[in-house]
Amino acid sequence: MEIVGLSLNELPWFLAYIATAALLTLSYVIIYMWVTPHNEIKLIRDNNAAASIAFAGSLIGFCLPLASAISHSVSLIDCVIWGVIALIIQTIIFLIVRLPIPKISARIENNEIASGVWLGSASLAGGVLNAASMTS
Known about the structure:
By secondary structure, this protein is mostly helical. It has one domain (16-133). Helix content is 76%, strand content 3%. Strands 1-2 form a two-stranded antiparallel ribbon. Helix 1 (11-35) packs antiparallel against helix 3, helix 1 packs parallel to helix 4 (76-97) and helix 3 (49-72) packs antiparallel against helix 4. The mean pLDDT is 93.
């Protein structure tokens, strides 16, 4: 029986990759929130648009290379390794983005939209380049 071009024989691999992606994404969110001085979830709950924009860009910036890793990996372990590399690169991007704006976290806490857009955009751009670099 075919479902959208895939046989049901592939279902266990789909489940393995989607579970791996979910665990890597959860790990990224936890590590990212640990690295950043501001509390993204609290700020987003408080309707802080700057925090939401910055966090959304970062999350998408991580998921793009993770999707590339899933598409191009030769095994589940290979996918995990490249997912961890994506996590490290995205965390480094946050540290680099702080160089021109050292108090970016305080600005995001103050809901300064420009800082949220800068961080979110830089995270997204870094994720796009990271994803493209993972292709062979």
